[in-house]
């Protein structure tokens, strides 16, 4: 049973990343007529509505102090992470942001080691895998072009990666409470939207419902709201609950790989030799971090 549940956890994490890796296309289309904060607010509001319809039962907490964990999860995973990422993109190159956000698993591992001692042990393969995957992600993102640093944007991206690491720990804690994943995700969304309200005024949020008369915009906001938010946050939180924060977070490494493949298929962008090498390194880094390569060698030795 435990083995089957682990398989489900890995499948959920992989499904989530495959979905999240394609969201940049929808966001790019919507940015023609929507601001980043408008896209963010509409997608999570729609996600909240979908989760409420899917499972309308009210979540009754066993202890009041558990509410604090939900509050901080909503602040980190829904509000701060996406705001920091979007603001970072206005200051620095998308390639820089993509690479920097990929260090989230490293932060997750370190924070888990500090705050959840004994739950998930960090082995050498985790750090080796991180280095290999990061090298691959750099090849994919920069593709032969020189690295251009922008202190403000790059720092915001680093903070975003750190915030996501905290979110991973918080969802692991929430997973231990024993509630329905849909109910807990819904509660996280509520707090995320509440914290987003001040940002609506700061970034000049406008409703402009007339924009939704365009079926292209409707499709893409549904894709982000129902798929990337409602479904994917549930599957991601489930994976963290089953596998733990560290093992789930390393799947973030393959997000740039999915983005490249999607760009080739949908946007007909060209793939280079450096990008192919980057993809191979990234996938190898994922397998190393998960301990798959080392485990196969051990199994072969035992068989011999």
Structural overview:
The chain crosses the membrane at residues 12-31, 37-56, 68-84, 90-112, 124-143, 149-167, 188-205, 217-238, 250-268, 274-293. Keywords: Cell membrane, Membrane, Transmembrane, Transmembrane helix. Residues 9-141, 152-288 form the EamA domain. The chain has 304 residues and is mainly alpha-helical. The chain has one domain. It contains 14 helices and no strands. The protein has helices spanning 2-20, 23-30, 36-54, 66-91, 94-101, 104-115, 124-142, 151-175, 181-202, 215-243, 245-249, 255-266, 273-290, 292-303. α3 packs antiparallel against α9, α4 packs across α9 and α5 (94-101) runs parallel beside α8 (151-175). The longest helix is centred in the C-terminal third of the chain and has 29 residues, at 215-243.
Give unreliable regions as ranges.
Answer: 293-304
Total strands: 0
Envelope shape:
globular
Radius of gyration from the alpha-carbon trace, in angstroms: 19 Å
Beta-strand percent range: under 5%
Topology of helices and strands:
Layout: H1 2-20, H2 23-30, H3 36-54, H4 66-91, H5 94-101, H6 104-115, H7 124-142, H8 151-175, H9 181-202, H10 215-243, H11 245-249, H12 255-266, H13 273-290, H14 292-303
Helix pairs in contact: 1-10, 2-10, 3-4, 3-9, 3-10, 4-8, 4-9, 5-7, 5-8, 6-8, 7-13, 8-10, 9-10
Provide a brief overview of the structure.
The chain has 304 residues and is mainly alpha-helical.
């Amino acid at each position: 049973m435990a083995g089957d549940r682990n398989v489900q956890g890995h499948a959920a994490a992989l499904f989530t990343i495959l979905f999240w890796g394609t969201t940049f296309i929808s966001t790019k289309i919507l940015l023609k007529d929507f601001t980043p904060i408008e896209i963010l607010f509409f997608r999570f509001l729609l996600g909240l509505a979908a989760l409420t319809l899917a499972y309308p039962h009210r979540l009754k907490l066993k202890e009041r102090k558990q509410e604090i964990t939900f509050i901080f999860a909503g602040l980190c995973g829904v509000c701060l992470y996406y705001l920091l990422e979007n603001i970072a993109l206005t200051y620095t190159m998308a390639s820089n942001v993509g690479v920097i956000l990929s260090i989230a698993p490293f932060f997750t591992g370190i924070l888990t080691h500090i705050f959840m001692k004994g739950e998930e042990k960090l082995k050498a393969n985790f750090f080796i895998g991180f280095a290999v995957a990061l090298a691959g992600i750099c090849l994919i993102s920069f593709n032969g072009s020189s690295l251009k640093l922008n202190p403000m944007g790059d720092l915001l991206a680093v903070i975003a990666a750190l915030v996501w690491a905290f979110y991973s720990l918080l969802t692991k804690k929430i997973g231990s409470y024993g509630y329905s994943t849909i109910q807990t995700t819904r509660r996280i969304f509520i707090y995320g939207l509440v914290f987003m309200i001040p940002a609506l005024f700061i970034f000049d949020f406008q409703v402009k419902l007339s924009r939704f008369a365009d079926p292209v915009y409707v499709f893409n906001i549904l894709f982000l709201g129902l798929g990337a938010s409602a479904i994917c946050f549930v599957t991601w939180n489930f994976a963290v609950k089953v596998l733990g924060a560290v093992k789930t977070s390393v799947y973030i490494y393959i997000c740039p790989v999915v983005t490249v493949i999607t760009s080739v298929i949908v946007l007909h962008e060209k793939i280079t030799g450096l990008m192919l090498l980057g993809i191979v390194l990234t996938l190898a880094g994922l397998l190393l971090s998960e301990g798959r390569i080392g485990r196969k060698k051990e199994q072969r030795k035992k068989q011999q």
